[in-house]
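Is this the right way to post structure tokens for a design question? Let me know if I should format differently. Anyway, here goes:
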């Protein structure tokens, strides 16, 4: 009896060991699937997120490029420009659509396929990410500077009539302020504006710091404003860079960039008078006569100074200061 009992005991122990080995294999298999699933979650989903960010950046750049071309050129060329920007980022990006909206914005949408590294084990071989961006391009209708830096609008006004009559060309030098400007601006007005206050102290501060205003608002002219204080303030705006900025090569944060107000035509401003703003233009400061009796600048093509915040009106009139930005 004792031998029979011992044989059964040994047999049961061996069977239990075999059963345990089988269970371990099952557990290991399940654990491996879980580990691969976690790897897929971390690596493959991470790759999707990374690709989504890259694709979004590419769509942003493509929309900004397309809307600038669409402003002056055909929709076909604008579409080609969007596709070119996407190809430059990644030749495998698929352009899904380029939409030219009725509000003069452009929307670019694209997609990209990501091949998985670990999720293949689970029977999932790839994933697709989508992105889209909408950009607007047009005349700037309001502009303001950022606190603590030069930016925003400068207190200088040019008649709309002058811009049209002289047919302003980008890169050419024009007179912005002159004591002989009475026939254009009006008696006693050199071309300065009283933005946010009157007098030479306020005028000098506005030249040094810039200020805020917008199209359709009315501002006061600053008659007889010229002198050493104004000359000094303007000289503080001279280009500090080496080599100096030029009309075709300049830094967008150069203090010599002046954002000038375009005033409504057909009105003679007599002394301190109300003037309506119809647009803006950018000039590169080039000449300051003693006591600021004459100030000149080069007409700069479609540039908002770096330290300025602005709002765009796609349907506004273009006097030279136009810009683009993402809106979605």
């Amino acid at each position: 009896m004792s031998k029979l009992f011992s044989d059964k005991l040994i047999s049961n122990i061996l069977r239990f060991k075999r059963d345990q080995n089988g269970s371990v294999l099952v557990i290991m298999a399940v654990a491996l699937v879980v580990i691969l699933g976690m790897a897929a979650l971390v690596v493959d989903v991470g790759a999707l997120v990374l690709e989504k960010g890259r694709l979004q950046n590419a769509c942003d750049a493509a929309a900004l490029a397309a809307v600038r071309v669409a402003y002056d050129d055909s929709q076909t060329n604008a579409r080609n420009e969007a596709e070119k920007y996407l190809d430059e980022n990644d030749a495998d990006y698929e352009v899904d659509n380029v939409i030219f909206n009725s509000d003069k914005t452009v929307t670019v949408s694209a997609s990209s396929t990501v091949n998985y590294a670990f999720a293949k084990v689970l029977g999932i071989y790839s994933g697709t990410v989508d992105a889209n961006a909408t950009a607007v391009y047009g005349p700037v209708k309001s502009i303001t500077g950022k606190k603590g830096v030069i930016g925003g609008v400068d207190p200088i006004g040019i008649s709309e009539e002058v811009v049209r009559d002289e047919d302003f060309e980008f890169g050419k030098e024009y007179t912005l302020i002159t004591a002989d400007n009475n026939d254009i601006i009006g008696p006693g007005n050199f071309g300065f504006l009283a933005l946010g206050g009157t007098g030479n102290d306020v005028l000098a501060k506005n030249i040094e710091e810039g200020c805020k205003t917008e199209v359709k608002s009315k501002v006061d002219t600053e008659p007889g404003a010229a002198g050493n204080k104004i000359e000094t303030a303007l000289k503080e705006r001279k280009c500090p860079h080496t080599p100096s900025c030029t009309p075709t090569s300049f830094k967008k944060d150069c203090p010599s960039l002046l954002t000038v107000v375009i005033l409504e035509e057909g009105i003679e401003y007599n002394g301190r008078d109300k003037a309506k703003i119809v647009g803006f233009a950018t000039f590169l400061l080039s000449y300051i006569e003693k006591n600021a009796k004459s100030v000149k600048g080069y007409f700069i093509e479609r540039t908002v100074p770096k330290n300025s915040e602005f709002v765009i009106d796609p349907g506004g009139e273009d006097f030279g200061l136009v810009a683009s930005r993402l809106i979605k």
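Format looks fine. Someone answered above. Worth noting: Confidence is low (pLDDT under 50) at residues 1-6. The radius of gyration is 33 Å.
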